[in-house]
Specification:
alpha/beta, TIM Barrel, eight-stranded mixed β-sheet
């Protein structure tokens, strides 16, 4: 069993409030055996690596991806960005189970994968086109035991309630699962307070799931609302722009989220373009990494957006002037929840969203989180807090004895500036080292000189 000893590291362990200097880390095989001071002895056959001037932190966890909606040859993008674990929150069951097996066995290069199976709608269908394959229906309360029991028997790592599931069915799903696996939701017909009081473990998207608790009563959506309606997202953005974050509904939501310790999967990067700007996106080096499958879907949007130079990064959520203001509101919600003792967890929706691209989208998410809750809390949101959400805190999310040796070696200080995570020198997944530049050389890339 290979042994590696890292010495003189500056350690961000994912748990402590401050980094520690002069730390040694011993890796035996795929797990960390010891973390301590510089005097930790090394085995005679150990590889000793001096990390003076460099930072070690846990591999990052993206809690919200749709991995079957991207090309398998692009999955190394996650590792190249330092994302060693991902949670697929919606995909065709057979596909995600096979992909999980391939990734977790090493047959496919990429992150560790946890899967929730299909998006569980009610009787109305929330998605169309290629995304519709991710959906399944739980048509009634009576259908819950067979449908959810089948998913649990198949070995999913969690359950996800989707937009058109009504409150009685959602509560029945949560009750049936009975904490055997985490239950999360992207809500629409069901209000988030109903799900919180029903015992749900997490919510996805600050943009959507808690919307009804923050917007004005006359702007709420519910039964009959459709994300396929072209006016849906502009109205959603406008509702957030005008939302009163101190209203009674907002205060009730905050209190319930904190009291029940419900995880809030932020996906702030959904509105990254609204802040970053289309012109900046056109010149962004990450743009060349958009997976081919996502590009094909973007081409289908040209009929709606028209021929334009930003066709590949165009995002309806960023097409409204209010998008940046809505994002600011989401960051305030995130900050308020965090400061009140709530659970903030980072995720991206990559695979569902074409840009920012897989893996690197989480770096953008971390930047937006850091603006809201600070650098250390942002890093914890995608390491130790995320691991606890996955119920994998004994294996992932921190640099500690017994955890997997999923480690990032960064030639910089991500606490002073989280953008320093871009200075990733080496990524370890289970004690195996990968060069980010070599990983990027393996994945499809485009010539984007025309964007200059």
């Amino acid at each position: 069993m290979a042994s590696i000893v890292f010495r003189n590291a500056r350690l961000i362990d994912g748990i402590a409030a401050q980094p520690r200097d002069g730390i040694s880390i011993v890796v035996e095989g795929e797990r960390i055996s010891t973390v301590g001071g510089a005097d930790i002895p090394a085995r005679g056959d150990a590889t000793v690596i001096d990390l003076k001037g460099q930072t070690v932190l846990p591999g990052l966890i993206d809690t919200h991806v749709h991995a079957t909606m991207m090309d398998e040859e692009c999955l190394p993008l996650f590792l190249a960005a330092g994302v060693t674990t991902a949670r697929d929150v919606g995909g065709k069951l057979e596909k995600v189970l096979q992909l999980r097996a391939n990734l977790n066995s090493g047959a496919q290069l990429g992150p560790r994968l946890f899967v929730l199976g299909p998006l569980l709608d009610g009787t109305d269908q929330s998605l169309s086109g290629p995304f519709a394959e991710m959906l399944d229906s739980v048509p009634s309360v009576d259908a819950v035991p067979e449908k959810i029991g089948g998913l649990l028997k198949a070995g999913v790592d969690g359950i996800k309630i989707y937009f058109s599931m009504p409150p009685d069915t959602a509560r029945a799903v949560i009750k049936y699962v009975d904490k055997r696996v985490p239950v999360t939701a992207h809500l629409g017909y069901t209000h988030s307070l109903d799900a919180i009081h029903g015992g749900i473990d997490g919510l996805e998207h600050v943009l959507i799931s808690p919307y009804n608790e923050f917007c004005a009563v006359n702007q709420q959506f519910g039964f009959g609302a459709s994300m396929l309606d072209p006016t849906f997202f502009p109205r959603l953005i406008k509702g957030w722009e005008e939302a009163d974050l101190k209203a009674e509904g907002a205060r009730s939501w905050m209190g319930a989220m904190v009291d029940r310790q419900v995880n809030m999967g932020t996906t702030l990067d959904l509105l990254w373009l609204a802040k970053f700007g289309i012109d900046a996106a056109r010149h962004d080096p990450d743009r060349k990494l958009i997976p081919p499958m996502a590009l094909e879907r973007q081409k289908q949007m040209v009929a709606h957006m028209g021929e334009r130079p930003d066709w590949d990064v165009g995002n309806p959520l960023a097409e409204t002037a209010s998008g940046a203001k809505a994002l600011e509101k989401h960051q305030v919600v995130t900050r308020t929840l965090h400061e009140a003792g709530g659970l903030v967890v980072g995720g991206t929706d990559c695979g569902g969203l074409s840009y920012p691209p897989s893996g690197f989208a989480l770096l953008r998410e971390i930047e937006l989180l850091a603006e809201a809750i600070g650098s250390m809390a942002a890093i914890r949101a995608v390491t130790s807090v995320a691991a606890r959400y996955l119920r994998q805190q004994d294996n992932l999310g921190s640099v500690a004895s017994g955890r997997y040796a999923d480690l990032l070696i960064v030639d910089g200080d991500p606490i002073s500036d989280v953008r320093e995570l871009r200075k990733l020198k080496t990524v370890y997944r289970g004690g195996v080292a990968y060069d980010p530049k070599a990983l990027l050389a393996q994945v499809p890339q485009r010539d984007i000189k025309y964007a200059a």
